[in-house]
Every structure is written in structure tokens, then in C-alpha cells.
């Protein structure tokens, strides 16, 4: 085009090194090829032309949260002749309409985090991982703590629901693990604990949570209920932690653990590996954390219970047995997430596994046959209609044995034999070994032989041992005296 200003088209084409035909074409239309490209036109009639503005747009305006698939099903109901293949076209058209005329959406404001300032707590459900302990499905959650700046994490297995006790225990474990406390702690975990509580109980729970934070010098804050992204620094890490646990279970080859302690150690190892990747930042933040107090504060609830004549007490819809010597006494029970510590006055008595009612609110039983076996030996027929009979048996083999005894023996004989078997397991300390023998008898279709079992697990600790004492003759002492006199004379 520059050469054409002083030369003819053929001369300019020759100097520019292009053909004469291209020169005449460019001379006729100097625009670029991309500028000459005509926009793509519709190749078939618009299937939504008659209904989008008149029927679909009113639905979008009336219910902004309506899903595109629901609108498609409604339009198909109104117009059965509409081609099912227009679903994707409808979804794209709705998405485009919402981009132009839809409502304003929530905006996420990313924050600048300072070291030592903010720690976050939350709970995440682990039921979808199919973890079992000794073959029994473990219904549990993880308490999850995270420092926003360094990414330090701590996880604690929670057997119950989201509660102050679970929060207090998990939070204090996390703070003592990292060796300091941030200036602010944020959580939404109390929302579930507030459920079904009256105003006084909610106020008490809030007071205890505030006191817990004050003990560590942290300002307590909570995000708005139902707004998960306000806790986004820990909500997003929930998914990463659960994915790491899922991968570790797959590599382990099984989700079954021998006991709860083994599973908790498994979780601790996974979290420790995640923390090692951020070790440098964690060490940097640890320097600016607040120092810890001299001791932990209480992470339990304390309740006074009375032991009834059934050698038991009921607490939070759970029936617990205790030794009969405690009947009539008032005990102080400290409720932790996974256990109860019992005290009489200031003296510790025992620790019981904490039970919980089922999802429907039905009462649960935590029964130890050792607490009542001495009384059952005097009243064996009480076993037949005992309210907590199934929970009394320590293992399935005992329960199945009793069912077999009831089938083949009179009720009185079956109860007496079963009680004697339980007493044998308790007195000889052979609960597991006896269960294996009972399972073998069940498989063989025979009843247990009590006399043979007593002989197998002898000696009987209640029997007095036979002691034989051999007395030394007195003449032996005379010989010693004579030797002493001889030695004295010689001196």
C-alpha cells in the first residue's frame, strides 16, 4: 500500500513480492481477512424463541435460585413436543441471561493474615470413610484446629456430637501441641451445641466458652450461622484432610482398627505429616504466639448423680452400672467426650466409657457384668427378664450361648449355667479365652461343660491353698549351742 502511492499496481506488486491478483484484491478491499469474516449465523430455527421470554424469564425472575434442570422439566411438561435435546441450549441461555439480568451474588473478600493472630476451630463428619474399630462401625467426627498464617493443624477424634466438651478438649490439645495461643479464636462449633437448649443453658454454655478463651488470652469470635466461607481457612482444609485420611486408608488396605487408640494414632500421624510440610512457617509463627498458662482449664462437664438400688445411675438418657457398694451414694461425674470419671467427694473411683442414646433418642446402656455378677449368682433367674440383658454379655459368644441354653434347657437351669459362666470369666480372668471355647461349642452344636471349664481355668482363686510346714527338730538347735561354747573356750 505504501509503494502504490508512487507506483502503479503492477509495479507496486512486483516491488512488494506479491502477485498482481493479490495486489488488485487488496487494492479493492484493504481490510484484514479477520475483519472481513462474517459473523456465524443461526443454521436452524431457535427452538426456544417462542417460550424463553414469555415463560422461562418469568420463572427466573420469580425464583432466582431455581435450577435449570427444574425449569427444563417444567417446560417439557408444558410443551411435550419440545425436543429433549434442547436441554444444553436452555442451560446456556439461562446462564447467559443470569449473567446479564440475574441477582447480585455473594462476594468473597480475601483477607491478609498476620502471624499469631487467628486460630480456627470446626468439626467435620467422618461417617463416609467407613472406619471400624474391632469390626464395629465408628460413628465419629474430627475436631479440626488450624492457624491461618502458618497452616498448623491439629485433629482430634470426637465420638459424640459438636459440644463444648469436645471443643474444649480438642482446642486445648491443639494449643499445647503448638506451644502457644493466638490472640483470636473463631468457631461456629457451638451452633449445634445450642440446639434444644433453653435460654439459661445457652447463656451458661456461652459463658464457659468465653471463660475458656479468656484462660488462654484469646478473643472469642464466631462466624455467622450457615455462612461457611467466613471460616474458609479451615473449611477448605477439611476437604484436604479427609482426602489425606481416605488415601491413607486405601494404602493401608483396611479401615478396621484394633481399638480407638490405634485409630487416633493413625490420625495423628497423618496430621503430623501435613505439619512437617509447613515446619518453617509454623516455627516462625510459634515465636509470636502468646505463652500458655501454667495449666489447662477444665474440659469437662460436672454432674451429681445418685446410685440407685439397681446398682446404677442414669445420665443424659444413658444407663450406667457401678459396683453395688456405691448404692445410695451421691457421686460426682465428670463428662468428657469419650468417658466419665466418677468421684466420691474428692476421691477418684473409676472411669466408665461414655454412652450416647441413638439417633431416635432411645436410651442406651453401658453395663459391666462384673458390677452385678455377685448379685446375679444369688438371683440367677433375674437374668431371664433383665432389661439390659443383651448389654450385660461382654462378647457375642456369651449372648449366643445363652440363646442356645434357653433352647435346650429349662429356663432356670439355663440362667444358672449362664450366670456361672459369667462368674467364671470374672473370677478366673479368662473372659476372652472362655469366649473362644464357647464359640467352639456353638460351632460343634454342644452345650458348655461347666466342670471341664472350671478345671481348665484352675486354680480357683477362692479356694485356700494347702500349705505344708516342716518343723525343724529342737536337737538341731542344741548342736548349734554346743558349737558356740567350744569356740568360746578355745578363745
Characterize the structure shown:
The protein folds into 5 domains: 3-36, no CATH class; 52-101, no CATH class; 118-288, 2-Layer Sandwich (Nucleotidyltransferase, domain 5), CATH 3.30.420; 301-366, no CATH class; 370-456, no CATH class. It starts with 8 loop residues before the first helix and ends with a helix. With 491 residues, the protein is of the alpha/beta class. The chain has helices at residues 9-16, 20-28, 33-36, 52-62, 68-78, 87-101, 164-178, 190-193, 199-215, 232-252, 260-277, 279-288, 373-378, 389-392, 396-408, 411-427, 431-444, 450-456, 475-490; strands spanning 118-125, 132-133, 136-137, 141-147, 153-158, 184-187, 219-221, 256-257, 301-306, 312-315, 318-321, 330-335, 339-344, 347-353, 364-366. Helix 1 crosses helix 2 and helix 15 (396-408) packs across helix 17.
Overall SS class:
alpha/beta
Strand content range? 5-15%
Oligomer: single chain
Largest sheet: spatial strand order: 5-4-1-6-7
Q: Give the averaged pLDDT, no decimals.
A: 86
How many H/I helices?
19
Q: Which fold name corresponds to the CATH topology of the largest domain?
A: Nucleotidyltransferase, domain 5
- Please bin the fraction of helical residues: 40-55%
General form = elongated
Model regions low in confidence, pLDDT < 50 over at least 5 residues: 486-491
Q: What distance lies between the first and last C-alpha atoms, to the nearest angstrom?
A: 146 Å
Radius of gyration: 39 Å
Kindly report the name of the CATH homologous superfamily of the largest domain: Ribonuclease H-like superfamily/Ribonuclease H
Whole-number total of structural domains: 5
What is the total tally of β strands? 15
Largest β-sheet summary:
5 strands, mixed
CATH architecture of the largest domain: 2-Layer Sandwich
